[in-house]
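Progress narrative, work stream C.
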Amino acid sequence: MKIAIVGYGRMWKLVEDYAKKRGHEIAIIIDPIYNTSKENLLNTEFDVIIEFSIPGAAMENMKFYAENNMKVVMATTWWYDKVEEIKELFKKSNWAILWSSNFSLWVHLFWKMIENAWKIINNFDDYDVFWHEFHHNKKADSPSWTAITTANIILDNVDRKKELITEELKHRAIKPEELHFSSTRWWNIPWTHSVYFDSLFDTIKIEHTARTREWFALWSVVCAEWLNKKTWYYEISDFVKEII
C-alpha cells in the first residue's frame, strides 16, 4: 500500500518504520514541519491515512477525509463525543474510517478478559471493583481513554455499578453503586492498567503493562492493511473480532 501519515508527533517515525518493514510505501507526511497540510492529500496518490495528531485537528480532518472519499485509521483520541456525527459522515462516504482508543492488540485481549471476568463475578456481590493506572509524565490526559473504555466495559457488565468516579472523593466515602478509577502520572513508568476485584477474603487482579509505543505503531499499520479492503465506519472491535 501507499500510506499517508498525518501528524509529526512521537508516533510518526515508528509508524513509518513498521509500514516500510511490512512492504508499504510512505506517500506523504502531513505536518507543519514538512510544510504540508491536509489539502496536499488531494494531489497525492495513496491508499490509507494513519493519523496520530491532536484532538483539536482530528474533527476537521475527519470531515475532510469523508468529503473527499479517503480511508483513515484514526489513532487520535478525545474527540469521541462526536462519534455519531463522524459515523454519519462516513456512512454517506464511499470510503472508510477505523478508530480506537488504543491500538495495542494486547489491550483488547485485556478488555476481553475483564468483560469475561465480570460476567462471572457479577453473580457474587461479595466482590467490589476498582481501577488504577500509571502513565509517564508526558501523558496529556487523565484518566486515559483506555481507562474510560475499561470503565464502560465494567459498567455494561456489572449490575451494581452505575456511575464512574474519576476525581478525588472529598469528605465522603464512595457509594456502593460508584466505580472509582484513579490515575497517577509519574516520570518514565511503564503504562500500567490494573483492575482489582476485592472481597473480605481475597483480591483478584488483572493487569496490563506496556513498555513501548511500538505495539501501537505496528497495529495501526496492520489495521490500515485491513481497512484498505473496506468501506464505511469501523471501530477496532470490528477488526479484533476477526483475529481473536
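Work stream C, second folded protein:
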Amino acid sequence: MQIVEEQALRSRTAAIVLDWAAERQPPFSGEGKADYADAIVAAHVVADEARLNLHRWIDAARRADLSWTEIGDALGISKQAAQQRFRRLASEGVDAEADGATFVRTGATAFNEMRILAEEGRRGNELVALGVLTLTLRPSDRVWEYCRRIGTGSDSARLEAQGWVHVGSYLPFHYYKRAVG
C-alpha cells in the first residue's frame, strides 16, 4: 500500500467518529463529561470493528494461501508474531454438530473451495459452516449446489427469492446453498 492510500484511510477512519459527533442529537459539544464518555464509546466501537475486520481479512488471506510469513511481512511483524496474534481466531469458526454427523474438509482455499463444494454437493453433502481453510459438511439425502458472492451481500434478497440459503461469510465472500431438485 502506498503512503497516500494509508493516509487517506487514516483520515476516513478518523472522520467516522467526527461525523458521529456532528450528526448525533444533540451534537457533541465537549462541554460535559457525558459527551466525552459517549465519544469514547463511539471511538471504541470503530476500533473494535476495525480489529474484527483485520481478523476477517487475515482469515481471507489464509484461505487464499498467504503464508504466515507473508501476513507478517504485510503487517511489519514476524511470522511467529502473526501466528500468535491471529492463529487462534483463524482456527475458530467451525461449529461441529453435537451428534457428530458432520465432517470437515481441510485445505479449502479461495481458489479451490468452489470445486470442493461442487464435488461434495453432488455427493449429497450439505455445507453447514466455514472456517479458515476448512469446510464443515454433513451428509444428507439431497444433492446441493453452492455459490459464492463478493461484497456486501446486497443481492441476498434476490438469491433468497431463487431458493438460495445464506450459509456464512468470510470476508470478502458470502456463501449460499440450495438443494437441487
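Residues 3-91 form one domain. No further action is required on this item.
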